[in-house]
Design goal:
Blueprint lengths: L2 H12 L1 E4 L2 E5 L3 H4 L3 H13 L1 H25 L3 E7 L5 H8 L6 E8 L2 H12 L6 E4 L2 E2 L6 H5 L9 E5 L9 H10 L6 E7 L15 H13 L7 E8 L2 E8 L3 E5 L2 E5 L4 E8 L3 H9 L4 E6 L5 E7 L1
Parallel strand pairs: 2-13, 3-4, 3-7, 4-5, 4-6, 7-8
Antiparallel strand pairs: 1-2, 8-15, 9-10, 10-13, 11-12, 14-15
Helix pairs in contact: 3-4, 3-9, 4-5
Length: about 300
Amino acid sequence: MNNKEMVVRELIKRGYSIRNGTKVWDVSDSKLWFSTPELSKAFLELKRNSFYKEHVDDREMLLLNGNTKKIVEMLGTKNFNLIEIGCAEGSKAATFIKNLPNNVKIKFYPIDVSSYFIEQVTNKIKNLYSPNVVEIKPFIQGLKNFDDIVTSLRSAEYKQNVILFLGSLLTMGEITDTLFKLSNAMLDGDVLIIGNGIRTGERFAELEKYQDPLFDKWFVNVMKSLGFTESEINYDARFAHGRVEGFYKVKVDKLVGYDSKHINFKPGDEVVIGIHYKYYEHELKELIGLYFKNIEVIKDPTGNHALFICRK
């Protein structure tokens, strides 16, 4: 299935809503954010050159550098499967692996919807030449269907799983559904490491961060796959429905589709591409606590980002 067909299918399946007289299509889904090399590369540019790097990646790297050995000690074993869901280019998994004690052996399983990211992370971990890594086996899979893979990776020698779920991915979709799938894929003794931002001030503030042109450069590739040109749409971000929405406003009449399936966009129609929910620490702990009995929160020095170390 090509990217245009994938997006049109989502548009038709989800339909639209009417907000204040405006037709709004919501296709916010991680499987569309990274479905082409262009989308994946644009996301990496966002990570390298914007507040995302400062407020997410750099803080998680710092936390992983300082706490990997502590996390491994929780397992009480020297062999385990390291699974990263939504691995991107692999910089955080590489940081985790570099901090492993010398006597620990792991099998590394990166999972991502992007074949471009899978190639990047596989090469990055191979090029570490780490004596800790005995096997690398990647999986191309979306974030909604990872649980079956995770449950199939155990073996007699590698019984326990450490799951990395970083980059605030938890709050870029339906949080309870994701937590249920993560919990359901784990057995007693497994460890889940969630990396996520923590709201410390006003819940809805600093909207300009999400209006950064780099978000447009990333998300516009979804609209281009439908046949829109940049002059036919405008990108913006807003707070709505308890979340941040990155969306496009259509400026022209546009018929898009494939085969006999078509959608007729009109000027003023909106297409929501990206979403991000914002939670305070107590809210995240309460939600995560519905599925995990043991949670330890390790915050970065600013208190605005944390690792949630979860065990069943």
